[in-house]
Amino acid sequence: MRAVQHRTFGDPADALEVVDVDEPHAGPGAVRVVVGAAGVNPVDWKAVRGAMAGASPGDPVPGGARTPGMDVAGVVDEVGDGVGDVAVGDRVVGWAASGALAEHAVLEDFARLPEAVATEQAATLPVPGETALRVLELLDVGEGQTLLVDGGSGAVGIATTQIALSRGLTVVATASEANQDFLRQLGAVPTTYGEGLVERVRALAPEGVDAALDAAGKGSARDLVELVGDPGRVVTIADFSAGDLGVVVSTGDDQRARRLREVVDLAAQGVVLVPVARTYPLEDAVAAYEESAGGHVRGKLLVTPR
Asked: Nearest CA to 157 among 302, 296, 260, 304?
C-alpha cells in the first residue's frame, strides 16, 4: 500500500515521503480500515519534527520508519480477534495505531459511525472532540458560567465552543480579525488575541470569567490566570511551560475511547460540526502539515489516500 513515512525527524518537507509499504493487519481487539480520510492535528507535525520525542532534526526514527497521523475514518475491511461490536463493511472512526497517512490503518480505539455522520466529517472528530470533552471535564463548568477559549477558530477551539454552548455556557473566544465573524456565527463572543487581551475580555464579560482554555499555546497563560483568578481553573493543551504557573497541562488520559463515542453521538445530533478547511491528496501531505504549522487554519485539514 501507499503511505507517508519519515525515517528521520525534521521539517515535514525534508522528512516526509510517499512510499510503498506492507499493509498492516488487525491484531486482537483491533480493526483495519480502508482509510477514507485522515485528520491533521498540530501534534502530528510536531511529532515529525521530533518535538514530542525530544529528538533533534536529522535524528533517526526508532524502528527505522514511522507513518504519522492519528485521526482516521474509513470502512472496516479486517476485524481482529475479540472485536464483536463492528463487522467488515462498517464505517468507523478512531485513532490509527499504525499511522493515519496511508491507504490502510489499524485502529485499536474506535467508534462505529451512524449514518448521520459522513466519513470526512468523522475524521475531524477524534483529537479535537476528545480534547474538548476532556478539557470541559477538567474545568467542571456548567450552565450559566463563562468560558474563555484562546484559539477559538482551530479545531479544538471550535469543538470546545460548540459543546460548551450546548451546555448553556457563555463562551468568549479569541481568533484573528479574519475569524471574528466565524466565531460570532458559532455563538461565541469574539475578540482578538494578543496584547490587551485582559482588558478586552473584561469589557466583554464584566461579571468575570469562570474558566479558560489555552488551545493556541501563544503565551497567553498569564493573562488567562489573571482573568480567571485561579491557575487551577485554566487548562492548556499547547503550552507545556504553563505548568510553572499552576496551570493544568492536559495531554490525555485513559478515557479517550469513551469520549470518542460521546463526541460521535454529539456530531450525529448536530452539536459538534468542525468545518473542513481543506482536503489534500496523500501525495500532498507535506503541504497539509505545512499549512497546519502556519497556525491559521479555521477548522480541520484532511488528507485522503484516494
From this structure: 296
